[in-house]
Design goal:
This protein is mainly alpha-helical. 79% of the residues lie in helices and 0% in strands.
């Protein structure tokens, strides 16, 4: 369950990255199909990243699956809080009037895009923190 949750978080994050990479780069009026393709490409990259990361973690570090699950159980504390605020901002953007849409974009989504690397590093640090899963490095 934890592995699936972490994989899903990575794939959704990279789908949003695909959207963000194409936002504002097309003069089309109806951009839904354009954005959908960009998000699908980002999600595809996310799937590849998840498979490679899992293979690297299990082969290169020789960690066992239960150790990876133990690390992953601590990561949603950071990732979940970040994701909840991002999804709340997206929800506000989808249902609100123009002024609140601007607030959601400028005050939450913009700065949170810049915070992504710190959130990912913080989640990894908490997941790998001492006192967690006993690691056997061979």
């Amino acid at each position: 369950m934890i592995a699936a949750l972490m994989a899903l978080a990575a794939i959704v994050d990279l789908a949003f990255c695909g959207f963000r990479a194409t936002a504002g780069r097309s003069a089309r009026i109806d951009k839904r199909r354009y954005y959908a393709r960009a998000m699908a490409a980002g999600a595809g990259v996310g799937l590849v990243v998840v498979v490679v990361a899992f293979a690297a973690a299990t082969l290169a570090m020789r960690a066992t699956y239960p150790e990876l699950v133990a690390i992953g159980t601590r990561m949603p504390v950071v990732i979940g809080a970040y994701a909840a605020l991002v999804f709340a901002a997206i929800g506000l953007y989808l249902v609100a009037e123009h002024e609140l849409r601007t607030l959601a974009t400028v005050a939450i989504l913009g700065p949170f895009t810049l915070m992504r690397p710190a959130v990912i590093a913080g989640a990894a640090a908490i997941g790998l923190a001492p006192g967690g899963a006993r690691r056997r490095w061979r």
